[in-house]
Structures are given as structure tokens and as C-alpha cells.
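for the record, two folds in this file. i put them one after another cuz i was lazy. first one right below, seq on top, C-alpha cells after. the second one comes after a little note so u can tell where it starts
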Amino acid sequence: MVLENIGLFQGLSTEKVEKYESIIEIKAYKKNEVIFNEGDPPDFLWFVADGEVKVFKDYASGKSAIMGVFGQGGTIAEVAVIDGNPYPASCQAITDAKMVVMKREDALEFMTANPSVAHKLMMALGRKLREITSNLGSMAVQSVTHRLSRFLLKMADKMGEEGEDGTRIKLFLTRKDLAECIGTSFEVVVRCLSKLQKEGIIEVEGKTVIIHNRMALEDLAEE
């Protein structure tokens, strides 16, 4: 069952999971394909079944900001589904991706009928709010090296694979995406990655980043 790999459904009885399996839809998206746009009506709650997607916001200045990157099991657009207002940001596939789609009315029933789901959702929203608050403060006063180090550590904890040479992270992000994630320019990100690589803290192989010295990266993230 596809829902077994999604956090909100874990802990529910097999009978309940099968019930929700019968009312969901699975949609496939190609790399770079838009899943939904900012301002669209909140008709669906989205879960990542496979692949990587990004949630981003475009501004009148022409700049974009990536609000989050989500892999398998990630839940997207829960706030819009709950309050009924249009999606506040857009969502796009970073890689080929499969999304679980649940209609808003079914999603609201799913939340209200299962207290454990509502609790998990509140905890997840709390974490997201804390992260956004922390990121806003960081962008205002902290260096790009600090922000990049924090982002790499977060991705390492989220999707890193441990090996003999360190923690390997397959980011699936372009340098432009990475810049938008931490609120800087493409050129500055490239310089910071090069600096960290010259110092032996990380190694960059295409879109894979290997953290060789996590302790040094953590020190930079705390500065």
C-alpha cells in the first residue's frame, strides 16, 4: 500500500489505511513539471509517494524563494486545505515524481476522524513554523556560509546516506534552486560551495554533496 510510507498514515489500522487507499489518486509528474500554482483553489491535499518536489513563491521583483524541498512521505498544502484559502505557493517536481492526491473534503474527514493524525499534523505545522521563523532570522543577520551550512546539515539529516567517506546527499537541486533555498544569488552559492570544498569540509560531485567533516560544518552553522 502506497500510504504506508506516508507519515500521517502510519499507526492507523490496516482497515483504515485500506479505506483511504480506495479514495486517493496517484498522479505522475515529469521533472520540472508544475504540480499546482500559487492562487489555485485548495481542492487537494498532496503527499509525495516518490521523487522530490519543491514548494516555491514568486515575487513581483522577478525573484523566487524556495519554501521547502520534500521527498517521499512529505505532506504538502495542508494549511490551504484546512483554512480553505488558495494555495499560498506553487509546487514543482524537481525529479520525476509520483504524488498521492486526496480531495479536500476527504482530507478534512481524515483529519477530524483520526485524533492521532490531527496531532501529527499540528506537530508538523509547528516544526514548519519554527523552521520558517528561524530561516527568516538567519537570512536577516547571518552569513551565507552559515545559512548554507545549516541547509546542508538539514538535508543530511533528512536524506543523507552514511558511507566511508562521509555523509552523501543527493540534492536534486540546481545551484539556482540552492540559492533560492537560502536567500542568496547563484554566484554566491557557487563561491561558498567552492570555499567549503577547498577547506575539505565537503566535496561536490554533480548534484551530490559529500560531507567529510560534519563537526566543522556544524561549527559554521553555529557562527
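(here's the note) second protein begins now
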Amino acid sequence: MNYMKAANARLKKIKMKKTVLIIAALLVSFSGMAQQNKMMFPFKGGLDEMTKFFKDSVAVSPDIIQKKANGVVIFKFTADARGDIQKMIIFYADDYLLTQPLIAALKKSNQKWLIPDGEKIHDFIIQFSVNFNAPAVINDDFNKAVYNFHKQRHPILTYNQVPLETATLLPSIQVNYDLP
């Protein structure tokens, strides 16, 4: 009887070791697959360089500052193998006024985009959030200007659906400006 208990205990240990080895092998194979499918960041220099580039390249216009404009702009653009932007679409914008300096900054980013190996062109989606740094003292004139911008803005919408499996969604870029 003791012999049977010892044999069963040994079998359980062997099964446990096999189970642990199988789980370990699966984990190693999945992590290897994840590393193979991992695409490098699609901007030369990485995320920090892209954030710095747009922070330095976006020139907020006096009209935006005067109207205390703020909002979101989403672009879809296509880059070629050299990293040049071939096509740009405003997918959404809270107002046309916000798009002008962002389009100029995107045009300056030519030859900075990296596309996956084997592709001739690649689509990207990027969101910009444009905001002003709130002044220390907020008065009625300030509130009225912010309200008027939002009341009079004309959003731009597109009804062209973007198949997400064919586009890379980039992190949002925050653009803040100071008021006089």
C-alpha cells in the first residue's frame, strides 16, 4: 500500500513538472512572438523626439491667441518609404483656425517618419490638443472670449472611415500657448 502511495506521489510530481515546463515554454514562445511583431516607433528618434519636434515646430498664430482658441485636431496622413508625407486629411477639427499651424508643422516633419519594412506607404493617425495656459486672473472679458470661440466655431468632420488595421495611431501631442 505504501508503495502505491509513493508511486502516485511520484507520478503527480512528474505531471506537475511537465505542466510547469509546458507553461514556461508557452510563455517564452509568446514573448518571442511579441518581440518579433513589435514595430519600432515610427518617428526618427522615438516618442520624445517627436514630442519635442512638434513642440518646437508648431507656431501658434496671433489669431488663435486673440480668439483664445482651443480644441482637438485629428489628422490622417500617409508617409512613403523615404519618410515624406504624401497625403494629409483632416479627420476631425474643432475649428479650421486650429489646423493651420498644425498642417505647417506636419509638412516640416518630412523625412522623419519610419514605415514598417516591406511597405511602400503607411497611414498614420495623429491627434493634437491645442490649449492656452490659463492666466493668473480670470475676468469676464476672458470668459466671454472663450465662450465666443466655442459658440462660433465650425467643426470639421469627415465621414471617411479609417480601417484601423491599416493605420498606426500615434500618441496625442499637447500644444499649449501663453496668453498675453
